[in-house]
Amino acid sequence: MITITDLRKVYRQGDREVVALDGVSLGVDKGQIHGIIGHSGAGKSTLVRCLTLLDRPTSGSVSLDGRDLSGISDKELLTARRRIGMVFQHANLFDSRTTAQNIAYPLELVGTPKDETRAKVDELLQIVGLARFADAYPSQLSGGQRQRVGIARALATDPDVLLCDEPTSALDPATTDEILTLIKAVRDRLNVTVLIITHEMNVVKRACDSVSLLEAGRIVEHGRLAEVVADIDGRLAQALLPLPGDAPDAIPAGFILELLYSGDQAVEPVISSLTRRFGVDVNVLAGSVEHLGGTQFAHLRIHLPTDADIEAIKTHLGAIGVAVSVKEA
């Protein structure tokens, strides 16, 4: 559905060039919720502007359902942009318009007949759970309700892609969960492809099927959620399944192992099997178990004594599908 190929964006500041995007390539399948995560300055805002062609990329291409948007005329681009619905960090509603009137605005711009507009607005109010607030003004709505209006407005022109730019960063945790649940429900009901730009790892964990890590204008890690989490040495895996703190300084000599396993292994007694098979005392230092991307994962930090047969233990764990990282205590 969305294909980004070798996208570059270079800004000029006097005699200096600033590379905001440096060869970004990415594909997102239809009906997928894909998260692009990165810290401030990573290039997320520039990527949003290039995806919608508000900024023309310096080079590379953005394709929507096989059509290259980067080479079309401004007139054609106005039509193409209707296939991309935008949800912003702040809903950016018109204060002088009611909920229904805000949702209707994109339809009015393209000259949709009033009866069709009214029917579409009624449908979207039901989808986002605001039918009772059709005549309310933004000042009468909570932050979460305003964001629901923003989502409904973005869906008004029946887009193929819903592009969400930091959609929950201004919301409290409970409201964030509500909005992410709504985004997933919209995807399931309308089969729309969703791209979420965020700096919040919890958003990725809660809503996304796949994820890309953007850093200094480059995608440094990418894949389906279950795949990136399974890479024990990956930065996304460490961020999505964090362990509290480092190993304590007072532990005795030996080995510290980090274990990462999923699926059936995540509910198996891996630790007790080590004790039975190798006759070693296992001290669990930290652990995390979560359900991500449709798969259950367990991430543990354990300590083994100096007489443990580490190579045999690593071989055994690898044979049963447990990823292992080892360092000396």
UniProtKB/TrEMBL annotation:
InterPro entries membership: AAA+_ATPase, ABC_transporter-like_ATP-bd, ABC_transporter-like_CS, ACT-like_dom_sf, MetN_ABC, MetN_ABC_transporter-like, NIL_domain, P-loop_NTPase
Cell membrane is among the record's keywords: yes
The protein's name in its UniProt record: ATP-binding cassette domain-containing protein
Domain of life: Bacteria
Family annotation (PANTHER family): AMINO ACID IMPORT ATP-BINDING PROTEIN, METHIONINE IMPORT ATP-BINDING PROTEIN METN
GO molecular function: ATP binding
Domain ABC transporter: 2-241
Database matches in Pfam families: ABC_tran, NIL
Gene source species: Zhihengliuella alba
Keyword match Membrane: yes
Keywords, ordered alphabetically: Amino-acid transport, ATP-binding, Cell membrane, Membrane, Nucleotide-binding, Translocase, Transport
